[in-house]
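ARCHIVE CARD
Drawer: 12
Card no.: 0347
Subject: one protein chain, sequence and derived structure
Cross-reference: see card 0346
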Amino acid sequence: MHREHEPYERYEPYEEPGHRPDGYDDDHLVHGDHDRTPRRPRSRRVWLVAVGGVFTALVVVGGYGAYNVFNAVSGGSSAGGGGSTTTASKGPQTPPTTEQADAVAKDFLAAWGRGDIGAAAGLTDRPEAARMALTSFHDGVPARSLTLTGTGPAASGTPSEPVLGYRVRAEFDGTTEAWEYESTLGVLRAADGRVLVRWSPTVVHPKLSAGQSITVKALPDPVSKPTDRKSRPLDAFPSLASVLPQIPPPDGSKAVTGQAVVLSGGGQQSEQLFVLTPPSAPQVKLTIDADLQQVAEEAVKKQSAGGKPASLVAIQPSTGNILALAYAPQGGFNRAVGGGQAPGSTMKVVTAAALLEAGVTPDTVVPCKETTNSPRSWHNDEPGSHPDYTLSDDFIQSCNTGFIDKGLEKLQPGTLAGVARDQFGLGLQWRIGIPSRDATIPTPGSKDEAAASYIGQGQIQVNSLAMASVAATVQSGTFRQPVLREDVKRVSAPGKLPSDVAQALRSMMARTATQGTARTPMSGLSGQIGAKTGTAEAGSDANNSWFIAYRNDLAVAAEVEGGGHGFSAAGVAAAQVLKAGGGKG
C-alpha cells in the first residue's frame, strides 16, 4: 500500500539520491506496514530557529480571563472529528530523527508566531487541547509581535522522545519593555507514523498547569501615599494615620493603572509573570518633617500618660509650613487641628497686641491686684498684690487682674476679635490641606464676657494649630496661614502686625522664657526664644495646660487636657520639640 501524505511535516531536500530526508531508505519500507528499518542516522545538526510573527488579530485588553481554558491546558479533548487526540502507539516505535524533530518544532513555532492557531495545533498530538490553549494565550496576551526562537535540544529529552528548547519574546504597544521567557516542547512519533509535538500546558509557558490561564490584567489602582518634605514615608506615625488618606492628589493629576501578564486559575494563587506598565500614583509632598514628627509623637505620648488627651503642632514661621502635628489618644479625634478649647493665658499674646496698639507700652504701670471685678470676681494663680507691675511684668508673670483691668479700660468690645482676625488670622477660613477647625473669637456681649476673653477664657475656642500660628506670627512679624501642602491656596490677613508691636511682643515673650513662668521648660535653649504659658479653667479640679513658644525658625503650641499649669505638661512637650528642631536660625 502507498504511504498516505503527511501534511504537517516539512523536510528539507537532500542531495543524496536514493535516501529519504526522514532518515530511512525507500528500499527499507515494508509494504503494508509502517515499521521501517532505520539506516545509519546522519550527523546531528544544531537546531536553532529564529521565527518572527505578528498576531493578525489583537484583542483589546479588557474583560481579562473571560476565556476558561481548563480543558485546554489539562490536555483533554473530545474523541472524533477535528478534536480527536492522536496518541502514541503502545507498541515499539522508531523515534523521530534529529531532522524530523527540528522540522516539526520549526513549523509549530512558525505557525504559533504568525497567529495561525489551527496550523500550530494540527502539529500536536492533541490538536483540540492545543487549539484552545493557544487561542486563550492569543486572546489573553495581546502582544504586538511574538518572536519564537529555537535554542536546541534540552537535557530533559530522551532517545525515544527528543525535547527541544525555545525562547519567547513578546512585545506590546505602550511599552519598550519586552516579556521574555524560555520553555520546551517534546517531539514524538504518533501511531500513524507522523512526527508531532507532544502537547502539554508547559508548551505555552513552563509554569502553566491544568486549569490555569495566562492573561494581561490591570493591576490594583495605586494608592497615593504622601511623603514628608524630603520624600520620606509617613505611614508609621500614628497621628498621621487619619491625615494621609485625606490628602487629595494635585489638581489635574491622574493615577496610572498598571498592567501585568498574570498566571491565574487552577485553585492556585495568581502569579505576576511580567509587568507591562507599572502603576503610578501622583506623589504629594507634605510640609511635615519626619524627624520632627517623631519627636512630636513621643512628646505627646509621654504627656498624655494616664489617658489625658493632648496635642501639639509645630510650624515654620518663615513659611507657615506645618512641620509636625501629633495628638493623643492615638487613633482618636485629631484635636491638634480639629479641636476647640479655651487657650487660657496664651491668649494674652493677642490681648497684649491689642493693648499696645491702643497706646499702652511694655513699661506702662499696670497693677497686678490680688482680685478684681468685672463685676464678676477674678483672681490670679498666685496670691498677693503687685501694684508696681508693668504690662511686661503682668505678661511674664501671667497676671490675670492686670490684663482684665487694662483691657476693660482701653479696649472696645470688638477690638480683641478684630486684632486676632486682621493681624493673627484667627477667625479666618483656613485651608491647610485637610479639614480643620478655625478659631472662634466672638465679640463679647458683656463686661464679664470681655474680661474672660482678655485672659483666654469664656467663649474663645482654638486649638494647637491656631496657637502655634500665633507664636509664629510674633516670631516673624507676619501672619502666614499654616499649611500641610505648599500648593494649597492660603488666606491672607487683612492687616499686619505693626513692627513696633511685634518687637514689643518678642521682647515680652523672651522675658517670659528666661525670667517668667516659662523659664523652667525653656531652660537651656539658645537662639531667639520666646514663650507664653497658659492655664485654662475647664470646670474641674485639674486645669488644662497650654504652652506656646518659638526658637529661631520653629514655633510650637501644645495643650494637655487636665495637665495643670502651662509650664508643666504642655511646656515640657513643647520644649522637647524646640530642643530637637529649633537649633538653626
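Annotation on reverse: The longest strand covers residues 179-189. The chain is about 25% helix and 15% strand.
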